[in-house]
Design goal:
BirA Bifunctional Protein, domain 2, five-stranded antiparallel beta sheet, about 10% strand
């Protein structure tokens, strides 16, 4: 597979058109454009991330496959949503930890669309067992956690996701980490400037952010007793 050289402006025009024409008939009529402008470049991007990411950690899965790999499928799950439009209007890539099986695993997520693009690091809505382990680790090692997260906040990262209104069961309201313990996700995100999306610099930019966020991911892996 060729080295990733960036997305084209036409890729974003396709996503914009899809947002306006989010229906199966239009998508099927423009499926060739989806393949050439979206799927093929994204698979090139994923393949080009393989060695740089494994140089940081060999425990995150990089799979440039059309189905079931690191590229997230274009179809929306509309079963429990009022929005019944069938297609996502963004590009999503996840490099999840080898110990996980789905999007709730520890991992790195790259989100690309017309309005905002960002890299996400951590876990989105982990199961109750994993979330309990992370909360306990944050409570027991709050000074370390605070140091890690403050440094990342200075680098334009921010926490993403909802928080509980009440204190999570088993924790004390006087715990200095209580606002962190209320979070339902352990996920931080940082915007990706669109200028990086149109060149091979996206690879180096994403790898730089993965390196920067390594202490955060290492903290999560230790909390879950999995290898980084």
């Amino acid at each position: 597979m060729p080295e990733f050289e960036g997305y084209t402006r036409s890729a974003f025009q396709f996503l914009e058109s899809l947002q306006t024409n989010n229906n199966r008939e239009w998508f099927n009529e423009n499926k060739d454009d989806y393949e050439s402008l979206i799927r093929e470049p994204t698979l090139d991007f994923i393949a080009s991330m393989n060695q740089p990411l494994h140089d940081i950690s060999a425990h995150f899965v990089v799979e440039p496959k059309k189905s079931g790999g690191s590229m997230m499928r274009p179809f929306r799950d509309t079963r429990f949503s009022k929005d019944k439009t069938p297609y996502k209007t963004n590009i999503g890539v996840q490099f999840r930890h080898a110990s996980g099986k789905d999007i709730h695993a520890p991992g790195y997520y790259i989100h690309i669309d017309n309005t905002e693009s960002f890299i996400g690091v951590g876990m989105w809505k982990p199961d109750s067992v994993a979330l309990r382990c992370i909360r306990e680790s944050i409570s027991d090692n709050f000074d370390q956690w605070l140091e890690i997260t403050k440094l990342l906040e200075h680098s334009a990262y921010g926490f993403f996701g909802d928080s509980l209104k009440r204190i999570p069961k088993g924790f004390d309201k006087s715990d200095p980490a209580i606002e962190h313990l209320k979070r339902k996700s352990c996920l931080i995100i940082k915007p990706i400037h669109h200028q990086f999306l149109f060149s091979g610099n996206l690879i180096s930019n994403v790898i730089e952010e993965i390196k920067r966020s390594t202490p955060f991911m290492q903290f999560i892996c230790r909390a879950l007793d999995i290898k980084f």
